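User: Is it possible to get a 3D structure for a protein together with its bound compound? The compound here is guanosine-5'-monophosphate. I've pasted both below.
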Amino acid sequence: MSAGKLIVVTGPSGVGKGTLLQKLLERYPDRLIFSISATTRSPRTGEEHGREYFFWDRAEFEQKRDAGEFLESAEYAGNLYGTPRQPIDQAIALGKIVILEIELEGARQVAQSFPDAQRIFIAPPSMEILESRLRDRSTDSEAQITKRLHHAKLEIAAANEFNITIINDDLAIALQQLEKALFHD
Ligand code: ADP
Ligand code: 5GP
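Assistant: Yes, that's possible. Here is the predicted structure of the complex:
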């Protein structure tokens, strides 16, 4: 059985990480495992507990974090986010490619604890395009959009910490580059 590996995908909110990864999963349902994160933010319309995220309240999240149940965790735009550890260990042992879609602080923690993880940064063609994608998505309040754009600048400035940067301009091209990074690099 081939060895499993850990892939970290990071990039500003609204850049298209979810869109790209969903397409990838449709193509390779048997090889890829997406980590389901936990968060203290409220579910968006259409999101389900246990599918997009485990939606835990702050007390529950902090209790699990303090018990060491997360591989990494971070605060982002006023909410806590974290990767439950146990499903990741299990999937890697089964030889799967495990994908964590997480923000910068968490990616840095994984770089320390799993130095062999491949870290991929998804960048927007420009800040203007990022902002219009965030707005057109219509999922976040104006206050959340402001916080997310603030984080975006910090994240883009750290892109050089990653093994590869993919610019999500044309979706099909970005998807091809992501596929190559996952299966051939
Ligand atoms: P993220 O998961 O990074 O927060 P999403 O996948 O939710 O971002 O994408 C944000 C918005 O941008 C969505 O409305 C999505 O349809 C759109 N989008 C994603 N990739 C592209 C692209 N290459 N060109 C144009 N729009 C895109
Ligand atoms: P959103 O609220 O838009 O779903 O996610 C906000 C940010 O949190 C995104 O940058 C996303 O990648 C990041 N995120 C999602 N899950 C995790 C996680 O488990 N850990 C960390 N550190 N960040 C996460």
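The chain has a mean pLDDT of 95. The pocket of guanosine-5'-monophosphate (ligand 2) is lined by residues 13, 37, 41, 72, 74, 76, 81-83, 101-103, 105-106 (CB under 6 Å).
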